[in-house]
């Protein structure tokens, strides 16, 4: 049964692997009214990301408008994560025509927020370039958005692309600094460390459970996830990580969170060794984020099993 009052949602993504699974949540969870998808330069080649988003929609059997955004960071050269994700979908190909909207992602963000004042939830699972550009272009954007759910940073300063930085923030630290300083009414952060590497790891036995579902969605998941699983496993994590999926789910249902804290987050934009590092100040009297510190990992996995078991 579709709820009477669904949650207006927009997903800003650098679509590869777990980003695809986050899109499945936005597309298929009956509580979500996914208004649009905006693409930002990040994980893999930009055109590949667009392909991956449209492929995911075709697998889900549902489509929403896809808007193309910033291909490059505000001030930096793009840094890919293709060594982690491959092409992001395990070589699967979309058989249809790659149709996207003419309206730029930044303009779409501003328009959709204005059309849904105080109710639109924006799920940010890539670099924050599009969001920063929307902040700069229209001051009303910040007030119109109900909240941001951001996958990025590390509370304990453990990175996944450098020792100090998580990938999404590292790619465009200037954009992240703008967004965290913009004054959004609600910003929820899903961090790499400790949250992702503690509570969102799908080990081999969990992947086997997903494969055993043998549905179109589960087969898509296993193949799209294979490169990330192999990379993470080889780097001592013990399985693939799924913070993007968790971010989309928490934007819809925060009951999966078991612990959270208020922090003042600042982003390092100058340091040679610490570019993109996030400083989570627990002492500040001016917090700007709520950081999720622990989630119900088994319940999250059960949710994904149910989602991927749909036929």
Describe the structure concisely:
By secondary structure, the chain is α/β, with parallel strands linked by helices. The chain has one domain (7-308): Inosine-uridine Nucleoside N-ribohydrolase, Chain A. The protein has helices at residues 18-28, 46-60, 82-85, 105-115, 129-137, 140-144, 167-171, 173-180, 192-199, 204-213, 216-234, 243-252, 297-308; strands at residues 7-13, 32-39, 66-68, 120-124, 145-151, 187-190, 201-202, 240-241, 257-267, 278-281, 289-295.
Give a description of the structure:
The chain contains 13 helices and eleven strands. It is of the alpha/beta class and 311 residues long. It has a single domain (7-308), classed as Inosine-uridine Nucleoside N-ribohydrolase, Chain A (Alpha-Beta Complex), CATH 3.90.245.10. Helix 1 (18-28) packs parallel to helix 12 and helix 4 packs across helix 5. It is globular and about 50 Å long. The two termini are 16 Å apart.
